[in-house]
Design goal:
The protein has 232 residues and is α+β, with helices and mostly antiparallel strands. Strands 1-3-2-6-5-4 form a six-stranded mixed beta barrel. The longest helix is centred in the last third of the chain and has 26 residues. The C terminus is likely disordered.
């Protein structure tokens, strides 16, 4: 289970919900958030960004299930389903939290990790291409894995791993095409550069020759006239 020992305490927000109000929340060292799901009304709250950042950077990341307490109500299980970062400094700006019903299946995307070096890379001159890095699954919240590990060390040249080959228990259902490629060993593609045949030394264009001839002829004419003048 992608669970966390971290507990998130949220403070309800009231009044206007606009950019100025959100800015005041951040200035106070909190970030605005919304809690919804489990058939209950959505609630605008403020939470500690340090706790949220720690959860997002954990092994299970946004799939982590944690205890959420909104002041004035009891604790519930929740997940982070959306978040926004400030583009330059990377600070959290806003998050969406979803209440989780532990007895109802849910859809999540889980990272795929490749383990080992394929024999097709070691001895056959191939390269491993990791085509699919996340796979969408459906399962109960308690069965959500932090990631799926697949051993590719036995993969030979042109061998591949499909979604259906990923290790999983019967409690997990893969969504989408189970024949989709997760990773494969392929040949290193050499870039072929077309070399054009070099022709012999380029000849001067006809126009240039003609111009040159005319120039030479024009220069030779005065010389001939000079010879004739000497004879006379």
């Amino acid at each position: 289970m992608a669970a966390s020992t971290e507990a998130v305490v949220a403070t309800p927000r009231s009044g206007k919900f606009n950019k100025n109000a959100a800015r005041r929340v951040r200035v106070a060292g909190r970030i605005p958030a919304v809690v919804y799901g489990a058939g209950q009304e959505a609630v605008a709250v403020a939470v500690d960004p340090r706790v949220i950042t720690k959860i997002l950077h954990s092994e299970s990341g946004h799939n982590t299930i944690f205890d959420l307490t909104v002041e004035g109500s009891g604790a519930v299980k929740a997940m982070i389903v959306d978040w926004q970062h400030e583009p330059i400094k990377g600070n959290l700006l806003h998050i969406d939290l979803k209440r989780i019903a532990m007895d109802k299946a849910m859809r999540v995307s889980v990272p795929i990790q490749l383990l080992g070096v394929p024999v097709g890379v070691k001895t056959q001159g191939g390269i491993i291409e990791h085509v699919m890095r996340e796979v969408e699954i459906e399962c109960l919240p308690a069965d959500i894995p932090s990631h799926l590990d697949v051993d590719v060390s036995g993969l030979e040249l042109h061998g591949l791993i499909r979604v259906k080959d990923l290790p999983h228990s019967g409690s997990i259902k893969f969504l989408g095409d189970e024949d989709a490629t997760v990773a494969h060993v392929t040949i290193v593609k050499e870039e072929v550069v077309a070399v054009e045949e070099t022709a012999a030394a380029p000849t001067e264009p006809e126009v240039a020759k003609k111009g040159k001839g005319e120039t030479e002829g024009a220069a030779a004419a005065p010389a001939a006239d000079a010879k004739d003048a000497k004879k006379k």
